[in-house]
Design a protein that fits this description.
Number of helices: 8
CATH superfamily: Zn-dependent exopeptidases
Mean pLDDT: 82
Distance between the termini: 96 Å
Oligomer: single chain
Strand order of the largest sheet: 4-1-5-8-6-7
Number of strands: 8
CATH topology: Aminopeptidase
Strand content: 15-25%
Largest sheet: 6 strands, mixed
Shape: globular
Length: about 300
C-alpha cells in the first residue's frame, strides 16, 4: 500500500468520529463520549435453568426403622465456595474439600452400621440452598449435617472448626457476615427457587423449630465434646445465625465449618485422607451419641 493510501486511511479512521460528532451537534443530538473511570461494561442477565429437586439414594441398611442422617456437602458445580491459591499457584476449592469430607463421613457411618445415610450431592453439581434441608425433610431424616470450610482472607493465622446452629439473631457480627455470604449463594449463581409453605402454618413451623433447635444445640455440644483433643476448634467454636440451609422446621441440623481454607494447617489436614478421617470419626461419634439419646427418650416411660 502506498504512502498516500496510508494517509487517506488514517484521515478516514480519525476524521469519521469527528464528523459524526459535528453532525450530531448540528442536529442537536447528544452522543455520550467515553471517559476514564466510567462504567461502560454492558451486563446481560442470562436465564439460568434451576435444577429439579431429586431425592438421593438412601444408603446402608434396608431397615427403615433405623435412623437416617443426611449429609450435605456445601456448594458444588459452578459455585466453588471459597477458593485458595497455594504457594505453587494451584487453586483449592471449598466444594471439593467438603465433598471429600462428606464422602468420608458417609463411609465411616456405613462401615460401623446401624445408620442409614443420604448425601445431597455425591459429585460436582450445584444444589439450590432451599433444596438441601427440603431433601432431609422429604426423606424423613433424623439429623442433617451441612459441611463447609471457612475463609479468613489475609488472616492466615485464624484456624479451627466451628459449629453453627440456626437462630434468627446471629451470635456475633462474624456469624452474621458468614450467614449473609452463604445465604447469597443462590442469587449469585442465578438460581431462583419458589418455596411454598402454605401447607404448614407459620405458628406450627415456629413451635416445631423451637424443639428442633434444642436438639440441634445438643448435637452441636456433642461435636465439641467428642472432638476435644482430637481436632482443633476455633476459640469461638459454637455459633448461631439465620442460615437458610438449616431452615428445616422438623429436622435438627448443624453447619460444620471444618476449618479455614486460608490456614495452612487446616488445609493440609483436609487434603489428606487421614486428616479427613479424623474429622469424620469425631462427627460419627457425636452422631451416634445423639441418636442413642433420642432412641432412649423415645422408649422411656411416658415419652
Amino acid at each position: 500500500m502506498g504512502t498516500m493510501s496510508v494517509r487517506t486511511l488514517l484521515l478516514i479512521v480519525l476524521g469519521l468520529p469527528a464528523l459524526l460528532l459535528g453532525g450530531a451537534k448540528i442536529v442537536g443530538t447528544d452522543i455520550p463520549v467515553p471517559q476514564w473511570g466510567r462504567d461502560y461494561v454492558l451486563r446481560f442477565a442470562f436465564p439460568v435453568e434451576t435444577p429439579a429437586l431429586e431425592l438421593p439414594e438412601v444408603q446402608g441398611t434396608s431397615d427403615t426403622s433405623r435412623p437416617l442422617v443426611v449429609i450435605d456437602a456445601g456448594h458444588g458445580g459452578r459455585d466453588p465456595g471459597k477458593v485458595q491459591t497455594r504457594a505453587d499457584g494451584s487453586e483449592v476449592y471449598e466444594k471439593d474439600l467438603v465433598l471429600a469430607l462428606s464422602l468420608e463421613l458417609r463411609d465411616v457411618l456405613l462401615e460401623n452400621g446401624g445408620i442409614r445415610v443420604a448425601l445431597t450431592r455425591e459429585d460436582d453439581r450445584i444444589i439450590p440452598l432451599a433444596y438441601r434441608p427440603e431433601i432431609a425433610r422429604r426423606l424423613g431424616a433424623d439429623l442433617f449435617v451441612s459441611i463447609h470450610i471457612d475463609s479468613a482472607g489475609e488472616r492466615s493465622e485464624v484456624s479451627g472448626a466451628t459449629v453453627y446452629t440456626l437462630s434468627n439473631e446471629a451470635s456475633s457480627e462474624a456469624a452474621a457476615r458468614f450467614a449473609e455470604r452463604e445465604n447469597a449463594a443462590d442469587s449469585l449463581n442465578g438460581i431462583s427457587v419458589e418455596t411454598d409453605n402454605s401447607a404448614v402454618s407459620d405458628i406450627l413451623v415456629e413451635l416445631s423449630q423451637e424443639r428442633t433447635q434444642e436438639d440441634a444445640l445438643e448435637f452441636a455440644d456433642l461435636i465439641l465434646r467428642e472432638g476435644e483433643g482430637k481436632i482443633d476448634f476455633h476459640p469461638f467454636a459454637k455459633r448461631s445465625a439465620a442460615l437458610a440451609v438449616l431452615r428445616a422446621p422438623d429436622v435438627p441440623g448443624v453447619l460444620f465449618e471444618s476449618g479455614f481454607v486460608t490456614n495452612q494447617r487446616d488445609l493440609a489436614r483436609l487434603m489428606t485422607e487421614d486428616g479427613r478421617r479424623e474429622y469424620a470419626e469425631v462427627l460419627e461419634s457425636a452422631i451416634r451419641v445423639y441418636l442413642a439419646r433420642r432412641a432412649d427418650t423415645a422408649t422411656s416411660p411416658g415419652s
